Amino acid sequence: MNHTYGPHPRKEDARFIRGQGTFVDDITLPGMLHGAILRSPLAHARITSIDTAAASAHPKVVAVLTGADLAEREMAWMPTLFGDVQAVLATDKVLFQGQEVAFVVATDRYAARDALELIMVDYEPLPPLIDARKALGADAPIVRENLPGGNRIFDWSAGDKSAADAAFAAADVVVECDMLYPRSHPSPLETCGAIASYDATGGKLTVWLTTQAPHAHRLVFAGLTGVPEHKIRVVSPDLGGGFGAKVPVYPGYVCAIAASMAIGRPVKWMEDRSENLMSTTFARDYHMHGEIAATADGKILGLRARVLADHGAFNAVAQPSKYPAGFFHIFTGSYDIAAAYCEVTGVHTNKAPGGVAYSCSFRITEAVYLVERLTDMLARRLCIDPAELRLRNLLQPEQFPYTCPTGWEYDSGDYPRALKLALSIAGYDELRAEQAARRERGEYMGIGISFFTEGVGAGPRAHMDIMGLGMADGADLRVHPSGQVVLSISVQTQGQGHETTFAQIVAHELGLSVEDVEVVHGDTDRTPFGLGTYGSRSTPVSGAAAAVAARRVRERARVVAAAMLEVSSDDLEWLDGAWRVRGDPDSGYGIAEIARAAHSTLELPPGVDGHLDASAVYDPPNLTFPFGAYICVTDVDPSTGVVAVRRFIAVDDCGVRINPMIVEGQVHRGLADGIGIALMQVIAFDSVGNCLGGSFMDYLLPTALECPSPELGETVTPSPHHPIGAKGIGESATVGSPAAVVNSVVDALAPFGVTHADMPLTPANVWLATQGRRVRPDLYEN
Ligand code: MCN
Ligand code: CUN
Fold it and tell me: Partner of 247 at 20 to 30 A CA spacing, among 1, 203, 391, 440?
């Protein structure tokens, strides 16, 4: 019986490795039609006319929808999870290249695509706004003419400005830098899509959907369509990755729903790779100015940041609504910095909707990058080793729980232990000696460190909401008479292995085998309400709900066991997966026997009903704060600019590990993300707004060739407030690793006087850096 946490093989892999997963595009319904979207070729233009006659006349076309058609149904605009409204199909203007303009429904997918070319749209081009830094200029084109703030979405600040200013005034040294965290794309292998099926007779709408947040999307669909929430079923079958890309509601989903409701037949819409890369939600796009202040012996005194956030044409992605810059303000990171202040301004540009997504922990990615780059620069300025500078400034274990300057309480941590472990795995001193020896020979090797703290598990309802909804998650646990159990959860795996780890949580609490716990998710008709999987919140929130529900089952079982044993329940103790009479460990019953008895005719005490089922809704008291220490070793060829990542050492602490094998898998993929972001990925635009990242020829994904097999270490500092002491892990490595890679490359290039270069560090950008030139990797002037 396996009822402890441990490296249990993933239950879901049996179907995946046999090719038996069911993804949205695998589903075919009787009479199903296929939709395709006509997209704008221009970044900014007024639509003067749309002629759909020829497309409608195509023999295989069943319907053509335009913004005007949707407007008649009051579905031309949809709410986003961020509190914005986004055009489903453009009515007056197009605001980015690839924006949705018309929807063709045909009897097959190819005919739908062909018919797109028969639609005639007249565009009157407008000057596009591509460079976020020009968004607030007096002569900037206005992206959203109906918004009162023009291109300005928000101005937001956190921290104590005067305290930060005083710290800077008192400092011996100040280091500052402009840095760009470029626009990147989560690129799940499965693109986004939906099948909508409206049954007019029953008034029921079923939507198979590529969504990380089925219940949240159902609520949006209810508001849009007028179909009551309880008559909508959102089914999210297997997902081929999400990485944040499947959090937003996309116009294609709404088009499929509108078409199915108009035609009365199921309609499938599945985007292709280019559509996915050009128009689904982006991440990052943060233009940051950071400053760090310190004493001459390297004690960091203060941190300031001024950020311009490019959100594209619409604010599509959820971030807790009180925090328009996500959790960027946890930007003092892992260091004992007394004074900090940041200002973030969000702007619209003529780019696809941006915001938060891509393993980001709600903008903590950008924050970690900023402080870790500045820390390295400070070390260089002070001629202190970057590991030593970090050890001097890391928060100490006795400082926890620690309230950071912007008010968040970090729950637990032992940071020096994690960094020292990483340094020892790396053999840091020998690496530095090797580096020096190589430099003598004209070889450029870099050693880059980063340390990160995340805040994940959104979120406590006292602090945050999405669409006005608190962020509690539910778990329902049904215990069959055989003692086998079914756990229904509100979160939605995209590959993280919830069917295994959530079964492990319940099995651990109830003394069952992992095989005896079935996990149900991804179907709003069968699962309790909750806001979905992102921000590594599944374990911190829904995992806690599962543990609490299981403990309730255990307490119910105690009463039944007492009746079975004819003792008082006070005389029982839970030991080795069974309720036993205290002092008599051979007596007692496990959950299976107790469940059988609960369902039997056994006489139960008054007030105890005859089953063990329980449920829980978990409102987390705080975020959980996982952390880690990363070291990246690179070899850089300054003559070609080619960077090879030789080694990657990652020590992660996510509290108690439910399934260490899955945790390591999460770290592996996050490190690959980080290497991709740091070295090869940017969604760039030319000056008229053509997206230059529309295929995997341009937007590069790292492969095993670029990613060394990482060397992992772990420390375990349980979260004190989480029922099983676990913290999230799903985004840690993506958050922590880019800074280590960049620090490593800049370290390698120190002899060239390079102090900073913006990501991605492609060969061209690295070579330019060695020539003392800085480029804007996100913008190509035509
Ligand atoms: N886990 C564990 N012990 C812990 C923490 C987590 O065993 N102490 C396990 C969990 O039970 C779960 C997995 O690790 O099976 C990830 O858990 P968690 O950190 O709670 O993250 P979520 O399940 O909420 O996943 C979301 C996170 C995010 S936000 C992105 S983005 C991302 C990521 O996960 N997208 C992914 N990892 C991904 N992995 C895959 N394969 N595909 C994606 O799209
Ligand atoms: Cu920020 S990407 Mo994940 O939270 O779905």
Answer: 203
